[in-house]
Amino acid sequence: MNTPQPWVHKARNYAMSFLWSRKAQKYKMVMLGRNLSDGLLAKMVIYMLLSIVAYLYLQPLLYMISTMLKTVSDLLDPSVKWIPRVITWENLTKAYKGLQYPEALRNTALIALSCSIVQVLICSMTGYALARLAVPFKGLITALVLLTFLIPPQVIIIPLYVIFSKLGLLNTLFVFLVPAIFGQGLKGALFILIFRQFFRAQPPSLEEAAKLDGASAARLYFRIMLPLAQSACLVVFLFSFIWYWNMYYEPSMFLAKGFTPLSIRLDHLEDVLNPSLLGSKDLVNNPVTEGTKMGAAFLIILPPLVIFMFLQRWFITGIERTGIVE
Question: What is the pTM of this model?
């Protein structure tokens, strides 16, 4: 029997070490990747962190849906936390009737849509003027706009109430529409600054040819600048719509009766619920009515959720183009 030569052992060892090194490099490439974020290990960590953040954001919504689908016995049973034993739609029906949902939804949508559209138009025109036109005292005007954003609304709420009362605007849509027309709607100063920053970032060559042809400032705005600002307009519209939809402080002061949105109806929902369920009129911490209140909250946030689902892609693109960082 021939004994293998020493060079055969060396060649075999070299081949094995080469194969193992190739496998090790392959496994290393799969786990770590060429860059730090390309490997499987980094992706697992990223997905784990994203799952934790998603749960933190979705947990209130999941709790709301779970609570509104529970029966009274499930609400009183501490062992039932997330999944109800019996799914009921009674809480949602009570919330629908208690909110007077069709009327309140119409009022809220009318306020949010009309004021948001006006804010987009007026704030974009103001931002364009401050960014591209030779306006006297432009720096001072910009500083005053920023100052209106920094002043808390509680400071000026009493003078505004007196003015609106004298003008006969209380309990009407115009209590929000008139300030929006003058560029001082809800968060209007912020939207003016967003448009100002967007128009300042555009190259001057876009307007030079039109100016040589004798185009006016209004034509430059409507024919050139406004079409370019579609992404900014969408971002401002969605932000304004959500803020007008969710506002509570201003409607509670100016819309005490009659033309009331969903936020005010939610505040008075306890008044229309049956106060004899636990023999007490204090229903704030009443577990029996918690399902109805969660159902009312779900009905209020449902329209903005649907709108965001359809406009999510354009909304994110608009935020990237306008440079908004949250």
Answer: 0.78
Backbone dihedral region for residue 324 (phi beyond 0: left; psi -120 to 50: alpha; all else: beta): beta
pLDDT digits (tens, 9 = 90+) for 102-138: 999 999 999 999 999 999 999 999 999 998 888 888 8
Determine the Cα–Cα distance for residues 26 and 98; give it in Å rounded to an integer: 64
In tens, the pLDDT along 49-82 reads 888 888 888 888 888 998 898 888 888 888 888 8
Nearest to 255 by CA among 164, 320, 130: 164
Q: For the chain, what percent of residues have pLDDT higher than 70?
A: 79
Structure tokens at 121: 């138009």
**What would the two tokens of residue 102 be?**
């069709």
- 196 φ/ψ sector (left φ>0, alpha ψ -120 to 50, else beta): alpha
Calculated CA dihedral for residues 201, 204, 205, 210, nearest 10 degrees: 120
CA distance 177 to 88: 40
Distance of CA 70 to the CA centre of its chain: 28
**53 within 8 A of 253, measured Cβ to Cβ:** no
